[in-house]
Amino acid sequence: MQNSFLPQPQSRELVVGLVGCGVMGRGIAQIAVLAGAQVRLNDSREGAAAAARQELLATFGKLVEKGKLDKTAADAAADRLHVCAPLQDLAGCHVIVEAIVEDLAVKKALFSSLEVIAGPDAILATNTSSLPVTAIAAGLQHPERVAGFHFFNPVPLMKIVEVIGGFLTKPEIIDYLLALGHHWGHSAVRAKDTPGFIVNHAGRGYGTEGLRVLTEGIASVPVLDNILRDTAGFRLGPCELLDLTGLDVSHPVMESIYHQYYEEPRFRPQVNTRQMLTAGALGRKTGHGFYRYGADGKKEAIAEPAHAAQLPSTVWLSRERPELAERVAELIAAAGVSIEASARPSDSALCVVTPLGEDATTCCARENLDGRRTVAVESLFDARRRRVVMTTPATTSDYLAMACGAFGANGIPVSVIRDSAGLVAQRVVAHIINIACEIAQQEIAEPADIDRAVTLGLGYPLGPLAWGDALGPNTVLTILKNLEQQTGDPRYRPSPWLQRRALLGLSLHHKEI
Ligand code: NAI
User: Which end of the chain has fewer beta carbons closer than 10 Å to its terminal beta carbon, N or C?
Assistant: First the structure.
């Protein structure tokens, strides 16, 4: 191992200092002490470290009650957990983890003090989620021993930690923290010191693209959330997620990452959340955000608009994309509706197109169909829980009713959206995959680590690169190219990582020699 001063991560000799006993500091202290380290708690607020120790002991008691922790182990952990009031008492720590307020000047001042107190070989780590590690380390006598050790809230449950090397950090410091995070029971992934590191960078796609769908008037709040939950498999829709996090946190993060990447269009925020923030509609914490919340904190349900439904006599189905048409044909057949075999639709048939990154209008015009009788349907994502029907600007209510009848048979809900290049799920998921590809292209993290960090940190149903492989890199590339062409927005320009792998038939996990 690196330097002889540092004990092995599993050694009972290891002494960890924890500065800042807020929610993160307490969580980190918990996993460290339960994994066998000696932990010294410090907080500048009087009594905070002692209160944190009491709280942790209470947590250990609950874990013992639930049978999740052995009583002897809990007692031993309690003996290893110490309050250390003056910062000077951190002298002799092997690793000091800072989890204080997210303020660069305050953190820099703390690290200046710590480098005098800690021995020259001790590791100084920061749990910052948004400040550059390089900036925190800048000006110190030994910036090479400073690294990011970024946990997620709640620490004991979110089993992921990003280990971030600043510009001058020594590789062995990173290796040590990776081993330490792993020993503490977390997946430890290496990330470059870039805005948002991995998780908060990869997470920019979901919210910003969801908000774009809203501001373009394509779907209302519940429609957007229902589609992304039920067809793409996200645990929460983007509006539900923003309400949970609170716009006082998420909107500034969206703006900050956008500006830190020099106005990269992929991260462009939307004006609606700025306005909501100004109005104080922050989400759950204010009882009002995208949704309203009762006094008991329960979300008030908003129903999707009701649409009339009647079965069409016949359906004509575009064969431009045979593999997608086949899936849609199965849905129509299940409703007992016949599909016309002719190359052109009969005079009264409902016309159905299956776009990939295009809007319904473009497909309709290219095939010279009657826009009044045409709808598009989502065919790339799971249709078992919800169907998505997209109108052209010309679709009549009679034909929309027929589409709702054909696709809503068997009681499966149908969400109706306005015309949109890439419907909803295609554009949102392709955007997320594209950002992950760019993270790989910029060597911010290894492909496998990107997927691991995103599934553990964000709870997405699949890692974005694995998701791209499952959909097919070529399919994702087609969606993005069409989106870029239809909107003229460089936001959708495909990452070279994606383009090259799609063209060569390689997995998105494939690394070059
Ligand atoms: P918090 O506000 O709950 O706790 C911060 C603690 O630090 C307080 O107890 C405060 O008294 C103490 N403190 C402030 N200045 C200090 C100083 N100079 N010396 C010693 N103690 C000081 O904050 P939280 O949420 O625990 O966040 C801590 C750090 O972790 C921040 O850098 C934050 O960005 C990061 N983080 C927070 C996450 C979260 O979900 N809350 C997730 C990941 C990272």
Answer: C
